[in-house]
Structures are given as structure tokens and as C-alpha cells.
Write a structure and sequence with these properties.
five-stranded parallel β-sheet
């Protein structure tokens, strides 16, 4: 029992160390808008525009919202369009929600990870403040575990922010979903608050 308690204590310490290790100065928020790109999560499937996290986060942070999500989008499709979507913009931050449809369709995970990394690099060319919304690598993963390890690897390698708590929490609670996958109004509020707090910590 003592060994188990020690392991739990170490894991808890590691969790809080990771949470508090947000790099400072990453998100000065000098632009006037926050862009959200990606799939149906980014598009706010199942909720009104005003309730989607893509609109809530800029409102919380006092910025204009640019919502560019597409229902059903996969990583290869976002990788192909992101350049033209952000080319003429000077955003304060870019939020990326992608990968969930790749996992659901059982695409090659290594290819998906490479695509997401490429998307992040294109976003970083426009702003230092890039946030990945992590999702589990399948519905079962969402019910029993956390987000795909690929998001942690990409966030660390590329030096961007990762929100890894909201979607596992939402997927485990029917009261936070409109269906088996998508957050409802309350779920979007959780994502919005979590990401806004991440950005504030990184200012």
C-alpha cells in the first residue's frame, strides 16, 4: 500500500508540474483576432455559434473571432487549406482542433501525427501563440484514458500549447455531449475556459 501511495504521489506531482510548466511570453496576444481551425469541434457542431468555444475564447480574451472549422475534416484536408486560410491574417493566436476524424476512420496514426505537426508549423509562421486541442485516439480511448500521445509529442517538439483535459472529461459525461462525440454548450464552455486560461498563463 505504501508503494502504491508513493506511485500515486509521484504521478500527481508530475501532473501539476506539467500543468504549471506553461512557457511564458508565448502568447503576447498582439493581433486583433483569434483563429480557430479544424474539424466539427472547431466548427461547433451541435451548438450555436455563440456557444462554440471558437467564439467564446476570443470573447473571454477581448479579441475578434475567426471560426474556420469544417465538419468531418481530416488532418490532410486541413494541412492543404491552412495556408490560404491564414495567409492574409495577423492573428493573436491560432487554435487547432484536428485528428479526431483520422482516428475514428482508423487512418495511419504516424501519418496523422506528421500532418498535425505540419499544420502546427504553418500556424507558427503566423503567430507564436498556437494551441492544440487534444483528443483521444478513438472513442474507447476517450472513455478509459486521455488524449493521444501524438499531441504531447507535437506540442513538446514544436513548442506550442496543448489542452489535454477537456475532451476526455467531456467524452466520459453524457451531460456534456450532444451525441457520443460532440460537446454541448456546457462542454464547449469547459474547452473555452481551459484554453483561455492556458493562453493567459503563456502571456
Amino acid at each position: 500500500m505504501k508503494i502504491l501511495a508513493l506511485i500515486c504521489a509521484i504521478a500527481l506531482c508530475a501532473f501539476f508540474i506539467f500543468r504549471d510548466s506553461t512557457p511564458k511570453g508565448l502568447c503576447p496576444l498582439k493581433g486583433d483576432s483569434i483563429i480557430t481551425l479544424g474539424d466539427s469541434l472547431a466548427n461547433g457542431f451541435g451548438v450555436s455559434d455563440e456557444d462554440s468555444f471558437a467564439i467564446q475564447i476570443p470573447r473571454i480574451l477581448g479579441k475578434n473571432a475567426i471560426k474556420l472549422g469544417i465538419d468531418g475534416e481530416v488532418s490532410a484536408e486541413l494541412m492543404a487549406r491552412i495556408g490560404s486560410e491564414i495567409n492574409d491574417k495577423n492573428p493573436a493566436a491560432i487554435i487547432i482542433s484536428i485528428g479526431g476524424n483520422d482516428f475514428l476512420r482508423k487512418f495511419d496514426k504516424a501519418t496523422t501525427a506528421r500532418n498535425i505537426a505540419a499544420i502546427v508549423r504553418k500556424a507558427k509562421a503566423k503567430t507564436s501563440c498556437v494551441v492544440l486541442l487534444g483528443v483521444p485516439d478513438g472513442i474507447l480511448g476517450g472513455l478509459v484514458g486521455g488524449v493521444s500521445s501524438a499531441y504531447y509529442d507535437i506540442a513538446k517538439t514544436e513548442g506550442v500549447l496543448l489542452e489535454a483535459e477537456a475532451m476526455p472529461q467531456i467524452l466520459k459525461q453524457h451531460s456534456l455531449k450532444v451525441d457520443e462525440i460532440h460537446p454541448n454548450k456546457d462542454g464547449h464552455a469547459i474547452i473555452a475556459q481551459n484554453i483561455a486560461e492556458l493562453i493567459r498563463k503563456a502571456k
